[in-house]
Amino acid sequence: MTYDGSRKSFLFTRILPALKGQSAYFSLAAVKRALAEAEIALADDTLRKYMSEAMKTGIVSDAGRGWYSRHTEPVILDPKPVAKIIREVKKAFPLLDFCCWSTVQFNPFAQHLIAQPTILLYAESDALEAVAESLKKSGWYAWANPGKVNAQRYIQPGEKTVILRSAIGKQPESSNHAAPIEKALVDLAYESHKLQMLDSSEVQRIIDGVLGSGLVQLSVLLNYVESKREKFTSKEITH
User: 56, 106, 118, 235: most buried, per Cβ within 10 A?
Assistant: First the structure.
């Protein structure tokens, strides 16, 4: 490959299709490794320019800073399972910044339907007790920051169990108080362990199902994982 046109053509017609065939998501570092294995040298600025062109022309999709995907349509969680609680909390606390998701929203990606639906609601720590009490008065089974000990007593039959957690500053932005897939998926992994909602194999199947079904902003998801690690110590996660 002696000129940039040939290098770009090889990238578009050989390297990127091969990476897309290997994985639904891949990084810029993976592209660089594939080019090196093919003995093709591209300056970083040139490669970024070509990758931008590949995204514009639909060869790959943008999955966040430094990440790409073969998927074209984003994964959207059905907002219906959280619509009622959003209305109630907005009515009772119109100025509250909160977001929520429900385990029911992950049923399309699970091998088995989740038996006991649970809603996770995130807000400022100082507001959790007041929101929980307000929800209890409206007939919800609401709990502020329950731990792992006796976790099963918090999950009640029906669809009105609400677990309230403190929001962290670096969490992905919500849309009309409904948590985006990048936040909900990470939280599901944490809460399934802490509240014993799902075993690790089922959580992994859900993660695989989500990543295999559509476009997720992987850089946002991974940044949130790091933020959670900074927020919680191992003791807080396991107790």
Answer: 106
